[in-house]
Amino acid sequence: MKAKRALISLSDKSGIIDFATELNKLGIEILSTGGTAKTLREAGLKVTDVSEVTGFPEIMDGRVKTLHPHIHGGLLGRRDNPEHMATLAKHGIEPIDLVIINLYPFVKVTADLEVDLEMAIENIDIGGPAMLRASAKNYASVAVVTDPNDYAQVLAELKQGEVSLETKGRLAIKAYRMTSQYDAAIDQFLSRRLFQEERLYMQFGQGTPLRYGENSHQSASFYLDEHSKESSVARAQVLNGKEMSFNNYVDANAAYEAVKDIPQDIAAVSVIKHTNPCGFATGATAALALARAWEGDPISAFGGVIATNRKVDMAFAEFLKGDSVPHYSYQVKDGEYIPSLVTTGKFVEVLIAPDFESDAMEFLKKKSKAIRLLKVPPMGEPDRFTFRAITGGILHQGKDNQIFETFQTVTKRDFGGNKKALAEFTMTACKHTKSNAVVLGREYAPGQFQVMGMGSGQPNRVDSMRKLSVTKAKENLKREFDQLGLTGDFESWATEQISNMVLASDAFLPFDDTVREAASLGIRYIVQPGGSMRDEDSIKACDQLGMAMAFTGLRHFNH
After folding, report:
1. Active site (annotated) includes residue 474
2. 168 is catalytic
3. For residue 154, what are the domain limits?
4. Same domain flag for 52 and 191
5. pTM value?
6. Which of the residues 174, 274, 311, 478 is marked catalytic?
7. Which of 137, 311, 367, 540 is catalytic?
8. What is the tens place of the pLDDT at every residue in 218-276?
9. Where are the beta strands (DSSP E) in 188-292?
């Protein structure tokens, strides 16, 4: 049925002049209220005031203007119901076929948590949600438009005769979604302001079923947070490969979040396995950073997830899949790495980057139809909060968006040269490692850094350091020693290398035993949050042993 009447009442008037002009050209009568009617008239458009339809003026400063049978009857009357149409005719009510409404800016006004209560209340829309819900209920007869982005589609269909039932249904759902979010925002604000109650509402976009969850017997879906503006894997475009799995999303998120914490003028690469950065490095180019990150743990890197903050070029792609680069998988036998040549390139599940050079993209696609290539959007406003589900509830916290609060050297020995920059890099890696986390980082070239050893997920940080972080660093150094063809005593060389590394701990050192154990392993630089009741014991131990230690003031637990 061809639309004859439209009701327009808007807070956000963007695009409405052009839209309403086209409605006028189609012979559609426009009803409107208050400021919207004024805006349309000033643009030279013919408008009928709602008060002319209702026979009742706007009252109470506009609080009551559309809450009237001549409006809601026109919205709710079903065109396919003879009784409804007879009732409309009996009471002189004309149907309304098109509703263009958005609501008072309550969410925007209350973004300031200290906003005056009366101002907040005055921005609670009453008539708007009522009309939206009425129109959406009768979507078979009424097209309800809440988003300026839908104006073009609706207009195109009107010019073809009428808005399709499919479009009307989609618009109706959008209207109900808007009113539900609006009511949730009002509940949150008034509960907090009047009763000091914190209430949380979460709403995500359309769910995408995944093949399975973390394990094959678990079902899973992915839902997009449509309010998030931060560059993320969730908002990435999949350019190649098999569909993303639950674990792919989890690991890809960990990989990209790590490189996002590196200053954007520095090329960085993370290699993730089970959310831990088994490889993490910066470099003069992304390809050089990738080579160093991969060498951080080439066994774990097999089947891993990689992220970079740079456009992927051919040098990067060649390192992963090129014929000119030897590819090895490793096994451990009697404590030694046993390399095995692989002819198909390095096995990588997911590669995340801001973009891909066209030749690199085609090369990777040709080499592997399975590798998932994700293009992430440009950096946006960081999310403020994170959430974690527990059985029967959900935890809500501010997002950990910092590395250091301060950098205070608390020992006699200082962090000379690039040691402070190395400390920041190593703490960044530590932040993205599961607690208890201890990470060893080194400067392998001027201003270029690499994780050499990572200890993660241990009940105590002495084990994270001694059994994992330092052990892994020595394994990497031994492989490097052999590859370089060095001669002499490996232990002496390795101790010298370790003495120039920085050890980062994600939380304070509760006792001086970690310091003393670190010294016995050759470590001379430690960065940690500080804050233990026994900080002085650790400081004294460092001074006695000729070590440097700095406090950052920020803990980075990652459970």
Report:
1. no
2. no
3. 5-195
4. yes
5. 0.88
6. 274
7. 137
8. 999 999 998 899 999 999 999 999 999 999 999 999 999 999 999 999 999 999 999 99
9. 208-210, 220-222, 237-240, 267-273, 276-283
